[in-house]
Task: structure prediction
Amino acid sequence: MASATADLLERVRAGALLEPGRRVLVLLSGGRDSVCLLDLAVRIAGAGHVAALHCNYGLRADAPAEEEHCAALCDRLGVALHVHRPGPAPEGNLQAWARDQRYAAAARVALDEGGDVAAGHTATDQVETVLYRLAASPGRRALLGMAAREGRLVRPLLGVTRAETAAHCEARGLGWREDASNETAAYARNRVRAELLPALRSLHPAAEANVLRTLALLRDEAAVLDAVVDTALEEAGDPPAVAAVKALPPALRRLALQRLADRAASDRAPAIGHRSAEVLALAEGAALDVGGGLRAEIREGALRFGRSSGPAAPHRDRARP
Result:
């Protein structure tokens, strides 16, 4: 068991997302993955360079106990703990609200203290994310999964399975808390974990490993495609001329529109490639809301994406008088 934890430590160290002496804020839920990550961060970066953030949403009866567990763990490992307690949850997508609260609080702490923000997403989470996105969202981005680094956000455990994080915690004598909401079928991600993954394993025992291998290949190829898209958009102008975008091959046209939307939405635009024909059919001065609070419009012969504000200018079919 000791050799397994040492191997895990070296694999994460080799990923270079955690470095000796580099400040890092670990998102600490109290679950096995985040507990494992915090321990590894301390061992690699040094306790004096590590802090933790726990969000107590106050949504479950055991929330106080989870906060106490995180405080005790941080005290044991010698790291500072920041606790964020959001206000009442709004109606709607509870998981999205909680995620936004967590990352916004992390950004504030990281801005004050410097360094990276580390999330405990594992290889198991990666597979679940790809399968969920493949079912719920069209476009190649569904198959690219989560990146190891997105600005200040790092995911040092993307090469580590959930079983490995549990084994690490057990070997190191680190307790963790189980979130009962991970078992409910009310959330789509839980249904992927409890129903879809077992079905895929029944088809092939290496199903998860094969998804991850495919993901690695697609990410490698995506770097080539991104370079092609960048070149095409540079040649189309800033903002790009509609005529130049229309002249691109269909696949490159879709990728270019997605890139423009992502730039306007800080890489959080919805998948819009399947709406490229609608966008490029806009008349001069017309606009189209494409989802996610984002709008495409044509002004002075150029295509622009921006935030939706007020009603979109009418889009008339050019075939009509």
Q: What stands out?
A: Confidence is low (pLDDT under 50) at residues 315-321.
